[in-house]
Amino acid sequence: MQLIFQDPFSSLNPVHNIRYHLARPLQIFGHARGEREVTEQVLALLRRVSLSPAEQFIEKYPHQLSGGQRQRVAIARALAVQPEVLLADEPVSMLDVSIRLDILNLLLRLKDEEKLAFLFITHDIASARYFAEDTLVMYAGQTVEGGPSDEIIQEPKHPYTQLLLSAAPDPERIQAGAGSKELTARGEIPSLITPPTGCRFHPRCPHAMPVCKERFPGRTNLGNGHWTNCYLYGAGDESPKTDTSVAQGAD
Ligand code: SF4
């Protein structure tokens, strides 16, 4: 498993060139030995992330590259280890809007062609829909809704997911005007050191009931792999999970 970090301006060491950044993981993990083999593999990695002609990039330093090119190098560095899973933490949010789609499409190509699994963490629910088959929505350390991405976007059930979607720019909703479905945000994101009891969204939820403050609801299955933890849909068919180690979506 390897990480792709959010900020390619700080995840590459400014005093080392691209060859060094890619040769190190190849050598440490024993995937290439000898200068010639290392160079060949570094060039191959640069081509896999569409940095070509690769020979022109191999001796460059991070400051000589654009943000998108740096992120491609960071992705190549992650690939050098031959991972099965990539954890991409907001991999496009630091990039110029015009090149975000290029990087997302590169990651999609790696996912589909090289059968890599991705855990893609984002606050941008639109890119989650574009990228991921399944989406988990997390609020203050609790996963509150999950299922197929299209279903989550088109039929959001949890009030926090509805709030997230209402905050995302949507030309159709703007045209629909006042009649469109929209939630009003209220309150602040809670302290994660002393989070609210029960459902952590209850201080901000327009539908909060007394029970919401007391206990976190169990998971209610809604069909088609779609589920939520919210008393609006019952107390849950399953006991609530406390595990917060897997998350995709906003916090
Ligand atoms: S469990 Fe209660 S507070 Fe939490 S989202 Fe559902 S209705 Fe709102």
UniProtKB/TrEMBL annotation:
Transmembrane segments: none
Residue ranges constituting the ABC transporter domain according to the UniProt record: 3-165
This protein's UniProt keywords: ATP-binding, Nucleotide-binding, Transport
Domain of life: Bacteria
Protein name in the entry: ABC transporter domain-containing protein
